[in-house]
Design goal:
Blueprint: H1 14-33, H2 38-53, H3 61-71
Length: 75
Amino acid sequence: MGAAVVLGNEPGSFAWGVLAQRHPALIQQVRDAFPYDRRQHKALDALLDEITNGVIEPLAPEELRALDTLASRPG
């Protein structure tokens, strides 16, 4: 038997709280804390919109490569 599917569309559930409240707050904290350029702010805005208003889209291949590069850095 496989793992249960976790949905974020039930108000009051843990998953809903993370997607509807916690992630938007974290995105705002990141925007406020770092001097990102307009392109990066636009990407954060798009992520926020996906989280709060729609479907979270998979990352593009170049975005996945960038994450792999960051993850491979020491420290």
